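User: Hydrogen peroxide-inducible genes activator. Structure?
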Amino acid sequence: MLELELLRAFVAVADCGGFHRAAEQLNLTQSTISQQIKRLELETKRPLFRRTTRSVALTDEGEMLLGDARRLLQLEEAARQRLMAPRLSGSVRLGVVEEVAGGSLPSALGRFSALHRGVKLEVQIGVSAELIEQLDAGRLDLVFAKRPLGTSKGKLVWREPMVWAAAETFDFVRGAPLPLALYRERSVSRDAALAALRDGELTWEIVYTSPSLTGVRAAAVAGLAITPLPLSAVTAGLRVLGAGDGLPPLPDLEFAIYEKRRPDKAAEALATALLALARGPLRPTI
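Assistant: Predicted structure:
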């Protein structure tokens, strides 16, 4: 029998890309996570991660185990919630960024609603900064958004690379400014992209803005500009650009859940459910 706590640590390390971030997510020490992974490798008699001083990556055996581990944890969470879920009522106003809403969030909310039929969900899609402002102003109860760079607020759910993306047919015009497609204003990815470019020697201009991920990505697919995207949001028709193209590196994106200062029971239950489900396939698949 594989212990669920060991599988939970294994999935967290795989999702977070390292032991330190996994420990933060599970509210454990890094040494505890390391011990749990060692125990799991002893039980399975297989190496599950390739470790270097700079990175942690799944082995082939780890890749095979990951899907099964997710399913087992989801079954355990569903059974536990069915048995222990309190009778809740009221409403929860949830704000989410498009990167999250475009994944399997609807099915996650459907499972929550099935457990708590007395809770009404109101979902608003927007940009991280605006959603967090609405939370602080009391107009939202819960926010699932990108964490502003340089902050540690909220409960970390996952971390992933941010990359420069452009159409597969995009060509740089020698001597011309780099064309950019960015969120209209106050976006984590917009701020990160502009900060990276200001520190470099490239000339650039913003040629396209949109309030949504769909909009900036469409501009990139059309070959109008390049745009910063989460790696998971790079879809067909786009390619990733990097140092070989003369572009500066971008920081990783962190997705976190934010709660209002005094959440009620329904909002707390939804936050807990999203954190648990996010360890499985809640991550975006857009």
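The radius of gyration is 20 Å. Residues 41 and 47 are 6 Å apart (CA to CA).
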